[in-house]
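2024-03-11 09:14:02 INFO worker-7 job=invfold-0412 stage=load source=structure_tokens
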């Protein structure tokens, strides 16, 4: 079962376009949503949340249309923005009084638990909070109404490495549960290495892949060897290849061919998410990738 499903969604604003977007976010897993800055990740989240409307296509959340079932669905979603769009002059107490009525299952005890956990004072105004404290408050709000789906839009953007790791640990400890679904958009790909089960990759306004992370990473290999080994036929087997003084590095789904020809003269490794994205951003286009890994 899918928590989120997009079918042939198209959207355009001025020169920006999203073309025929289709992907699923499976229920009960952590799905990483990746792509370069400006590619349209936040726009897609706004479309999912019905903050803007697509030109065509279908968006389902919990197998229902948000526009028709907005109140019910949003009560089941914990939404964490990269920024808190609240009045900086408000205290945490006032923020809770404003937000709590929007949620049928608002849990004051749980909110207090997270305020204590994050050392956030109720009588302090938002303008006195650091970026990390604001993100923790956003997490506390999202975690305090017993949501089933958590949508996180760049939750670690602008945080220093220590606070970023702390936020990721919180997400991992509190949300990785068979009954919870997490959809996390980020351009900091290393954040996903320890928490993602599933990956959606957006490039050039199109979905490159949408699959379980292990399945994706098992299909690609990084091959390193001497540049003198490379000919046009081998280059055609690589999605991306780069050369340096010590040799070449290639991303391919045909590492067995390199191994068969060169044996121990090549080094073959499984890519990390960040390496895979960097090579694919530089490399070939969606249709060629899909034809090979589908």
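2024-03-11 09:14:09 INFO worker-7 stage=emit residues=294
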């Amino acid at each position: 079962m899918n928590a989120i499903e997009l079918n042939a969604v198209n959207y355009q604003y001025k020169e920006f376009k999203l073309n025929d977007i289709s992907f699923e976010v499976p229920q009960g897993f952590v799905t990483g949503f990746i792509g370069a800055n400006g590619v349209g990740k936040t726009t897609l989240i706004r479309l999912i949340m019905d903050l803007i409307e697509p030109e065509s296509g279908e968006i389902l959340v919990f197998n229902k249309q948000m526009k028709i079932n907005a109140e019910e669905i949003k009560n089941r979603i914990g939404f964490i923005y990269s920024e808190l769009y609240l009045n900086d002059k408000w205290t945490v107490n006032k923020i809770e009084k404003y937000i709590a009525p929007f949620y049928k299952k608002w849990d004051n005890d749980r909110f207090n638990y997270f305020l204590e956990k994050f050392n956030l004072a109720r009588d302090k105004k938002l303008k006195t909070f650091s970026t990390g404290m604001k993100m923790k408050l956003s997490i506390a709000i999202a975690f305090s109404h017993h949501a089933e789906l958590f949508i996180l839009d760049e939750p670690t953007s602008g945080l220093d490495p220590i606070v970023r790791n702390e936020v990721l640990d919180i997400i991992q400890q509190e949300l990785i549960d068979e009954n919870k679904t997490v959809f996390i958009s980020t351009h900091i790909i290393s954040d996903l290495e320890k928490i993602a089960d599933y990956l959606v990759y957006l490039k050039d306004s199109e979905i490159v892949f949408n699959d379980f992370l292990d399945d994706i990473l098992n299909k690609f290999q990084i091959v390193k060897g001497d540049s003198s080994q490379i000919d046009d036929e081998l280059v055609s087997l690589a999605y991306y290849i780069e050369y340096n003084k010590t040799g070449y590095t290639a991303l391919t789904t045909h590492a067995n061919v390199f191994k068969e020809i060169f044996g121990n003269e090549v080094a073959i490794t499984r890519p990390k998410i960040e390496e895979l994205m960097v090579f694919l951003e530089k490399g070939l286009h969606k249709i060629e990738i899909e034809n090979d890994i589908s």
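2024-03-11 09:14:09 INFO worker-7 stage=report msg="The chain has eleven helices and 14 strands."
2024-03-11 09:14:10 INFO worker-7 job finished
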